[in-house]
Design a protein that fits this description.
100 residues; alpha+beta; Arc Repressor Mutant, subunit A; 3 helices; 3 strands; 38% helix; 14% strand
Length: 100
């Protein structure tokens, strides 16, 4: 699904990172497509991907080239605890992702 797209970052090198990151993003997309609210830990528990990679993937979904999807964020429980949960809302105008 994301195989033809490039990612960002100072250390990103397509030949080393693209396949791995595309696989991770596809897995996060599939899991988050249920429309539910999930913490990074819950997403990690289901996908096995590192929480930092999940967080980066959720940011990528908001970018034009990755579909410009909506990712909602809210605190779970006591706001002072710093626990956040996320909800993925697909962009209906983009079937999956854009290739530009």
């Amino acid at each position: 699904m994301f195989e033809d797209l490039d990612f960002d970052g100072d250390t990103y090198e397509r030949k080393h990172d693209q396949v791995r990151l595309a696989k991770q993003l596809s897995g996060i997309y599939a899991f988050m497509s249920d429309g539910g609210w999930h913490t990074l830990q819950e997403i990690h528990d289901k996908t096995g991907y590192p929480p930092a990679s999940i967080s980066a993937g959720l940011r990528d979904f908001r970018k034009e080239r990755f579909g410009k999807h909506q990712v909602n964020k809210r605190s779970r429980g006591n706001r002072a605890s710093g626990l956040w949960e996320y909800q993925f809302v697909p962009n209906k105008q983009k079937s999956l992702v854009t290739t530009s």
